[in-house]
Amino acid sequence: MSAPAIDPVQTPSGKPGKSAKLSVSLTGRSGGQRRTTPARFDTALGWSDRPGPAWALRILLCAIALGVFAAPFLTILSGALSTHPSGSSLSFFPHDATLLNMRVAGERGIWDYFSNSLVIAGGGLLLQLVVCTLAAYALARHRFRGQALVLTLFMLTMMLPEEVIAIPLSLVLGHVPVLGLDLKGTVWGVILPLGAWGFSVMLLTEFMKDIPDEIEEAARLDGVGELRMLWQVVLPLCKPALGVAGVLGFIMIWDQYLLPLIAAKDPTDYTVTVALAVLRTDPEVGSGVVLAGAVIALVPSLVVYLLLQRSLVTGIAAGATKG
Amino acid sequence: MTATVTTPGAPTRQRRALSQRAFGKIALSRKAVLPWLFLAPGLLLALVFKFVPMGKGIWLSLFEVRPFLGDKWVGLDNYTRVLSDHRFQDAIGHTLVLGIGQSLGAIALGFLLALLLEGQARSLRIVRTAVFLPVVTATAVVGELWRLMYYPTSDGLINSGLGFLGLGPVPFLDNPDTALWATMAMGIWIWAPYNMVILLAGLAGVDRHLYEAAAMDGVSLWQRLRYVTLPAIRPALGIVLVLAAIRGLRVFTEVYVLTGGGPAGSTDVWMTRAYTLGFTRNDIGSASAASVVLLCVTLLLTVTVNYFRKRGDVR
């Protein structure tokens, strides 16, 4: 059974309705659809799929787009692999490939930063998914007093990114109210503030609402309790939404900059993205080493993206329309 | 609280209607408590790490924060000081220029990309995947990349390209006159593919038969874009614009990793300024005031937009 909210099959009919608005875009309108109109009506510009002047122009423009948006990533790689890494000698391909920069970056502790990042990304994502799933389950499958208020509160957390509350947040991290803990310098200082992410709550809530009541009723008649209901009935039905929340959550956590910065007690607590600035200001290493660090910081998000591309794109389109 | 939940003997697993009638009180309280148990972790984390800091920020913005001496109440002084500070006014100006330029640029470029890359062919899919890379890359990595591309001597990547066209080396990030524009270009580069995805979703929703009908009426390509495509993707465009505006106001990481606000404060934006005030100069009160103003503007913008969008939906 596929719940309707994230249905990749595009309905060719008119307005972007509930299913159309989540329809995929990087992957295009999915292949299963029968073509009812000629190719030149398939795109807004009426690109033809036969060789010709327009076709050649399109290829040229695509090449330019690739050059502008993707080629710079080749320079990171080639810069990281070349021996005399001065910022001025960047090119798309390394002249003499070597792993020297990686080794120097390793000596500067890049792998420690990297493991900090992995722990934070792993722990943060796990916490975020659990917390948001629980909250979404309550919001989607229960009726209770104050529901609208809670929903508003979670929406409000999206209005309060780390940037806006950075200064008081750093005070709170140094002395958590009531408990009096000092989270600074621990991974918890980064992980815990990422736990309640309004976007994930919204996304999962919307998705869980679309699960038919009959399924829940039937399970209840069978004597299924709340936790089992969530774990064995609801969750398996919202795998696609979990995928989206997971990918977007990972990208969002990996991209964190200010939070690891203010949660750190000293530079060894930094994540790999923040540590790039440390490498850059280190007078003894050249930009090749910084680029080696950049490659290391780039790889995880790249892997996640390439593996779960479809979820990511669906999620961005969905998140945008839900707002 | 938990005591009511585990009341022994209550046949709690029955259908709601039944249990509600038969065991009114117990079932009711159980039903009332359950959702809150599920919500507790999320609400707790949001409370401690979002709302308490927000409240604390508002509170601190009314004080002159003095470690060890105790805070001194100054009322709205922090606000007047921040808003009348020249460097801060400059920063607000930069934020607006950067936000507006970056948003419009990224939307225009994103739209062109969407038009170019719309379609189902496998090759197009690969191009889209590659073009989307800037969005998934951590901002810090993008910053390092662009720093090197902007290398000021003539053999820097972009400058060598300009040299090829016969243009002199531009000291992109080192010159106060060009630094803001260079930052804007990076922002457009990051966000154009993001907008592309949303706009592509919009384009996919356009009824193909409209194009066919337009062709029968013999309209030109431009008319077809203007009168068929554009109205159909207006909702998507609106969303993209709003997201960009809100993002633009609180831009921090992009500027911080690329220029750090320099040279000579020429790229200082609202948040980098507040960060400098708070963490470098330790003027927590003023920094909080700046953050509160930003928060209010963001909230106002969001609420207004949502209001208009709701009204649009109803209509």
From TrEMBL, chain A:
- Keywords noted in UniProt: Cell membrane, Membrane, Transmembrane, Transmembrane helix, Transport
Which compartment or compartments is the protein found in? Cell membrane
Keyword Cell membrane set for record: yes
InterPro entries associated with the record? MetI-like, MetI-like_sf
Matching PROSITE patterns, A to Z? Answer: ABC_TM1
Q: Which domain of life is it from?
A: Bacteria
SUPFAM superfamilies linked to this entry: MetI-like (SSF161098)
Please give, as recorded in its UniProt entry, the membrane topology of this protein: Multi-pass membrane protein
Domain ABC transmembrane type-1: from-to ranges: 114-308
Q: Where is this region: Disordered?
A: 1-37
PANTHER family, sorted: ABC TRANSPORTER PERMEASE PROTEIN MG189-RELATED-RELATED, LACTOSE TRANSPORT SYSTEM PERMEASE PROTEIN LACG
Family in the record: Belongs to the binding-protein-dependent transport system permease family.
Name of protein: Carbohydrate ABC transporter permease
**Which species is the source of this protein?**
Streptomyces spongiae
Q: Upper taxonomic classification of the species?
A: Bacteria, Bacillati, Actinomycetota, Actinomycetes, Kitasatosporales
UniProtKB/TrEMBL annotation, chain B:
Which InterPro entries does the UniProt record give? ABC_transporter_permease, MetI-like, MetI-like_sf
Family, according to the entry, reads as follows:
Belongs to the binding-protein-dependent transport system permease family.
Record has Transmembrane as a keyword: yes
Q: Which PROSITE patterns does the protein's record reference?
A: ABC_TM1
**Superkingdom assignment:** Bacteria
Q: Where is the signal peptide?
A: none
Domain annotation ABC transmembrane type-1: ranges: 92-305
Know the name of this protein?
Sugar ABC transporter permease
Keyword terms, alphabetized: Cell membrane, Membrane, Transmembrane, Transmembrane helix, Transport
Which GO CC annotations does the UniProt entry carry? Answer: plasma membrane
Q: Which Gene3D superfamilies match?
A: MetI-like
- Species per Swiss-Prot/TrEMBL record: Streptomyces spongiae
Pfam families from the entry?
BPD_transp_1
Compartments in which it is found: Cell membrane
Q: How does it sit in the membrane?
A: Multi-pass membrane protein
Q: Which PANTHER family does the record cross-reference, listed alphabetically?
A: ABC TRANSPORTER PERMEASE PROTEIN (PTHR30193), INNER MEMBRANE ABC TRANSPORTER PERMEASE PROTEIN YCJO (PTHR30193:SF37)
